[in-house]
Design a protein that fits this description.
single chain; alpha+beta; Arc Repressor Mutant, subunit A; 3 domains; 9-stranded mixed β-sheet; 3-stranded antiparallel β-sheet; 15 helices; 16 strands; 38% helix; binds adenosine-5'-diphosphate; binds magnesium ion; binds zinc ion
Amino acid sequence: MGVNSVTARPGKEDSTGKIRDYESVIGLEVHAQMLTRAKIFCGCSAVFGGDPNTYTCPVCTGQPGSLPVLNVKAVEFAIKMALACHCKISPLSLFARKNYFYPDLPKGYQISQYEYPLAKDGYVEIPANGREKRIGIIRIHMEEDAGKLVHEGAFESAASSLVDFNRTGVPLIEVVGGPDIRTPQEAGSYLRGLRDILRYLEICDGDMEKGSFRCDANVSVRPQGQREFGTRTELKNMNSFRHVEKALEYEIKRQIALLEAGEEVVQETRLWDEEQGRTLSMRGKEEAHDYRYFPDPDLVPLEVSEAWIEKIRETLPELPAAKRERFIKQYGIPEYDAAILTASQSLANYYEECVRVSGEAKMVSNWIMGDLLRELNKDDREIEECPVPPKNLASMLKMITDGVISGKIAKTVFEEMYRSGRGPEEIVHEKGLIQLTDVDEIQGIIRGVLEGNPKLVEDYQKGKEQLFGFFVGQVMKATKGKANPKLVNELMRKSLSKG
Ligand code: ADP
Ligand code: MG
Ligand code: ZN
């Protein structure tokens, strides 16, 4: 920049004395392992785990003379994802060699689609602030996974490193998202959205900790209102949704601070260090690899016919976005509820079954989002492992609406259902939790409470009206919460007005 050029630094006060705000721009690259039985170019098991180097053969360990053969199932799975993301599927795509050396890559190159990917130009919809937001999908391509290095001792000072080739050749798809995300929270909900789609399609288990669902996050910042994007950095090494959000939050602050100080953001790859809670530079642009991509001569071009695409399209289930929309319309529940209830197909089924039996759409939603998910999260359980079958939750809700038990008692009943797996009727009868609605009995208890507190009754009559709640509370206490609160209120008011 010339000495004479005077440009307003982003974030500095402008002529009106106002500090300019920044906007972040985020684009995610997601790798998802396909749940095929075999690897992408050989017959070895693609199942996670197994004793090290037991799921290997000459092809996936890159031995001379071995030839890759494409697994059709892996292509079918990738096409499913491409269709779910509204992508255009190329009739012809190519596998290329991405050349680099690393000990987890026995061939010295990774087979990946590069110039001619399987699919392009799609989008996914994610719930954002009570509406659906579209995030573009630039491309979806297929590739093979690399092996896994196991470092003995701390990473930097590892005395030795071991390599496990069970993972080499496991089919991956890479989903390259557009730079359409604006906040770390949105990035989190996009990622969860992609994971949910993959799980609905049953093509990936979506487990970030295990590494079967991984994410590189590209992020830049720009002054509010500026059209061009700022210089981006790429973040790696995040193995949970929370870490992605935290890493982005940190990185956005770091980039803004640089611009504020009049410095520049350097385009580089940075690693998230969870322990230190910050990102660290891994490699700069100068060290970026030149992969010398070229079409793999061992593989024929991948042809995908229109007929095949249509056949696969017919197998697609109702996907999260469509289900959300249907839930909102059909059950009249808020977008927020619909987003939570459709996170997995099993949870959505659970919800629909409860509503079918009880006829209570919003009440079921409240109980699932509240008590049920809280208990499941506490135990780290999935809905499939829920000890309360839908019909039990539904009958308990019917007991509330029929006035058999109070909403308060229902909390206790629910806990007991969850703990024991038993039905609500059994629990309610055994523990004598049926709501007290007998007028004479309640009246008797009210009399007891008022006679036991003559001084307070006098105060109440002199105008200290807030004591009303205290009297009601005493009755509820005496009946262990079983008295029908509405009835207690009514009868109490009558008793007190009689003087
Ligand atoms: P590369 O192939 O070098 O990784 P791409 O241009 O294909 O680069 O982009 C990769 C990812 O980076 C995409 O997800 C895209 O949305 C995102 N991205 C590109 N430019 C920016 C930017 N300025 N800020 C944030 N993300 C960006
Ligand atoms: Mg990249
Ligand atoms: Zn193999």
